[in-house]
Design goal:
The protein is of the alpha+beta class. The protein folds into two domains: 177 residues, Jelly Rolls; 116 residues, Arc Repressor Mutant, subunit A. The protein has ten helices and ten strands. The strands form two sheets. A six-stranded mixed sheet has the order 1-2-9-4-7-10, with helices on one face. A four-stranded antiparallel sheet has the order 3-8-5-6, covered by helices on one side. A hairpin with a 2-residue loop joins strand 5 and strand 6. The protein starts with a strand and ends with a helix. This is AraC family transcriptional regulator. Keywords: DNA-binding, Transcription, Transcription regulation. Pfam families: Cupin_2, HTH_18.
């Protein structure tokens, strides 16, 4: 059983925001986490997605879940289901404790089984991105209560995979019976097309971040207009293509500051900034310290 009282300060993803760590293992693809959003860098669990599904409960504080162009407020006591492959981010304005589970639906049954095809696939392949569970609605409160039991079981001295799966089945059964799974193919196709275009544009930025690239060039990488590129970025990760470019350059610069002895001016040029002064200003805006201070802090941790 994978139980994690988290001390993480950041979410690790690849260049397309796919979370890099495995949740559980091949024999039991399930993990339980007990996390405080406030303890993460910039007080957020940054943009990421995974093939697994996720259930999150707000034990204390108020969480904000960003999915697409929605910012979902989750007060204490509420829970949320996040479907497979959905890009999301969590924010908080104070210490906010969120016990959560992340697991592959294959924990229920093999993918070619009747159970999986009849009860799992319809939810995974629906247009459902997320579902909130409020204590004020009877069936949703039932899910919340089972989640509480599941979290408590993960922290017990005798954790049972069998009991864990039984509780997961109870949750999934309620979810399946109350979901509107008559998803529109056109809506789903449109969403996937936007996601694919976003990933291609992000990859273009990652491949050319050292160059002087424009919004027009980013949009042209997927043959759309600049205004459409802006809309796709805004609905996908709530930022503009140019802002993402700067953010990516800064993350590359931060990595170079902590792994090389190159001068700050050299790193600024290497990561696509037109001047070291502009680079230093942008770096301080994001990391709340100068590049040299950041380097000293990182070196002290080694």
């Amino acid at each position: 059983m994978n139980i994690n009282i988290s001390s993480a300060t950041s979410i690790i993803t690849d260049e397309n925001f796919h979370e890099s760590i495995s949740h559980g293992n091949q024999s039991f693809p399930f993990s339980y986490y007990y996390e405080d959003i406030w303890s993460f860098d910039f007080h957020c669990i940054d943009w990421h997605w995974h093939h697994e599904v996720e259930f999150v409960t707000v034990l204390s504080g108020t969480a904000f879940c960003l999915i697409g162009d929605e910012r979902i407020e989750l007060p204490q006591g509420s829970s949320i289901f996040i479907n497979s492959g959905i890009l999301h981010r969590f924010e908080a304005h104070e210490s906010t404790i969120i016990p959560n589970i992340v697991f592959s639906p294959s924990v229920f049954a093999p993918e070619d089984s009747l159970i999986y095809q009849k009860y799992i696939v319809p939810i995974l392949h629906s247009s459902l991105s997320y579902q909130i569970f409020s204590p004020k609605i009877l069936w949703q409160n039932s899910v919340a209560q089972i989640l509480s039991s599941l979290y408590a079981h993960q922290q017990s001295a005798s954790v049972s995979e069998l009991h864990t799966v039984r509780l997961l089945f109870d949750i999934w059964d309620i979810l399946f019976r109350h979901m509107d799974l008559s998803s529109s193919d056109s809506v789903l196709l449109s969403s996937r097309r936007r996601s694919a275009r976003l990933q291609v544009m992000m990859k273009f930025i990652q491949d050319h971040f050292q160059e002087d690239i424009s919004l027009e060039q980013i949009a042209a990488s997927v043959s759309i207009s600049p205004s459409s590129a802006l809309a796709i970025f805004q609905s996908g990760i709530r930022t503009s293509p140019v802002a993402y470019l700067i953010q990516y350059r800064l993350s590359c610069a931060a990595r170079l500051l902590s792994t090389t002895k190159n001068p700050v001016s050299s790193i600024a040029e290497e990561t696509g900034f037109s001047s070291s002064g502009y680079f230093c200003r942008k770096f301080k805006e994001r990391y709340h310290m100068s590049p040299n201070s950041y380097r000293k802090q990182m070196n002290a941790l080694l």
